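About this split. The held-out portion is used to measure sequence recovery: a designer receives only the structure tokens and must propose an amino acid at every position. Recovery is the fraction of positions where the proposal matches the reference. Here is one held-out target exactly as it appears in the evaluation file.
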């Protein structure tokens, strides 16, 4: 089974979240910092909101923070965020071959479904597994144990496509084959990603020209 991360892997959305974070903080007279970015990058919504509140000592509740983020992101996911290059073509190719496909994401369910529907991809995926439902961060190998159990497959039968280095490492530790997908947000971590993955690609076009063995 082929498992796909969403943000930064199938869709070019990481820049959107930087814009949202910057706008959210500017409203409060605060600055976006590398340390803050590392704390919230690819975290599930509740964890990111709790971190934001504590990091900046905000009076806002985590629930209010999440609601504000969601409102800011909804329009982008429903019609503005593009797919990564050749993502559609690769997904359709694998679907036509009869390969079972699943989404494994820390994205908010409403936003995930909105962007998949906008691009007409929903029907390609057998399952969508949300980190929110499992209740763990994707950087924890136990998260992927939960994914495997939920999907009813074995780790050795799965390949994950993922852009975040910690998530790649966690999946590999859980026994899953991992393909690192380049995203500009994690460009500085390319060496780290290559070290923990079975293959690293700049674009899904590479997998169409030279499939995984």
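Reference sequence for scoring:
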């Amino acid at each position: 089974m082929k498992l796909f991360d969403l943000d930064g892997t199938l869709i070019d959305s990481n820049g959107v979240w930087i814009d949202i974070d910057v706008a959210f903080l500017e409203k409060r007279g605060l600055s976006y910092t590398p340390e803050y970015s590392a704390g919230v990058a690819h975290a599930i919504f509740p964890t990111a909101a709790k971190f934001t509140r504590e990091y900046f000592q905000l009076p806002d509740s985590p629930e209010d923070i999440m609601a504000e983020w969601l409102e800011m992101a909804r329009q982008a996911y429903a019609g503005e965020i593009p797919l990564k290059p050749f993502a559609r073509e690769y997904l359709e190719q694998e679907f036509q071959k009869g390969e079972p496909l699943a989404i494994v994401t820390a994205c908010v369910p409403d936003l995930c479904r909105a962007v998949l529907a906008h691009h007409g991809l929903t029907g390609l995926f057998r399952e969508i597994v949300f980190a929110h439902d499992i209740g763990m961060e994707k950087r924890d190998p136990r998260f992927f144990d939960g994914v495997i159990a939920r999907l009813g497959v074995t780790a050795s039968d799965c390949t994950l496509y993922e852009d975040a280095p910690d998530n790649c490492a966690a999946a590999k530790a859980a026994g899953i084959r991992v393909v690192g997908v380049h995203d500009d947000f994690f460009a500085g971590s390319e060496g780290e990603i290559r070290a923990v993955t079975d293959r690293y690609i700049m674009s899904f076009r590479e997998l169409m020209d030279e499939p995984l063995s």
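Annotator remark: The mean pLDDT is 94.
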